[in-house]
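Hi D.,

Good news: the full-assembly prediction came through. Inputs first.
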Amino acid sequence: MRTAAPNLLWLTNGHAEGETRLNAFDNALIAAGIGHWNLVKVTSVAPQAATLVRGPLDIEAGSVVPAVLASCQSDRAGELSTSCIGIGLGANSHGMIMEHSGTGSPEHHEAVVRQMVHESFVRRGLELEEVIIRSVSHTVEQIGASVAAVVLWWR
Amino acid sequence: MRTAAPNLLWLTNGHAEGETRLNAFDNALIAAGIGHWNLVKVTSVAPQAATLVRGPLDIEAGSVVPAVLASCQSDRAGELSTSCIGIGLGANSHGMIMEHSGTGSPEHHEAVVRQMVHESFVRRGLELEEVIIRSVSHTVEQIGASVAAVVLWWR
Amino acid sequence: MRTAAPNLLWLTNGHAEGETRLNAFDNALIAAGIGHWNLVKVTSVAPQAATLVRGPLDIEAGSVVPAVLASCQSDRAGELSTSCIGIGLGANSHGMIMEHSGTGSPEHHEAVVRQMVHESFVRRGLELEEVIIRSVSHTVEQIGASVAAVVLWWR
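Then the structure:
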């Protein structure tokens, strides 16, 4: 990673079953197109100069890649595993990335994330220009996982 | 981030209420002056050549910034949320950073951290020159959080 | 850290007692030879060009070092704390690193990790050439920890 702020953002998600909780998580990463990197969990800022891009990103497998991650694993058949990410973009400032995951409907998690993005802007005295919210849900068969992520990188 | 060891350390803390646990945590990060970076949690070494500086650090918003983090979120009104960090500086070696957080008094957490710093030096056969301990407590109103951190960076 | 994928892998482990859970974990890191770096937890990819080396690695104390980490801390006397890591190397692709830890026998955790490595290759449609699995167990006296890790670095 570099000391300069990342200037690319990629919002993605995925879901899958697996034979263990870690494999279900790993399979959800694959489904999201981020299963071939060494992801590092970071807190939640969208750099001002960053461009939101359509993935997939062309980054060498095994690279150390910062990402905001939401995930939910469950081994209760029939349960809904939902992961949600929201990006708030600022009018003249950096933005904020919020996440929420767990069981329950996408609508529930999206409402929570929307509220969190709003509060994060109010608290910083920043003007919110746009909110982008995406969630993914997985109905657990045996062991399932959902993952939502914002990958941060440098063009 | 770079492959060289960081040469700046900034010890900070903050506390706040929030509408959710993540927002309370986020608001505590803002209060600590570290809410505009993508923090990466690291284990606990103070590089030998690092200088302890008074913040705030001038790092671009959204940068990926390594930090030792202690935090405690609580939604029990009246409960004391305390986060404590201690830096042990070595006489002729690298130092160690220890953290402890939870409910309870700052005195309790500071005593635990002091003991942890001592043990981390004894175990490494290093000579402890100085211990700096800081804690922050928050009395929860509805949903509150405290955060103590050491930010590691490069001058 | 750099944006290029790491090209060195070091598989190590350790175990120890400590006066607190964090110290037991820290002492296990020392025993594993990785207690003098700022470790950053990453998900689980072995870059294709990476060489598995015998440690210890010559990296400056306090450096920010990516690692896949498995650890288990326990304060129940007599309990077995086991941490296991497996590296699956691909025939013509990147590899995968899986981990499992908890109480219970090394045989149990090794079997789980072996299965996870296999599934991670099947799911990606990759050909598995070799699996290397190492575990460490610690019989808890008062407060104990085991740690297994793969350190990723650049030659």
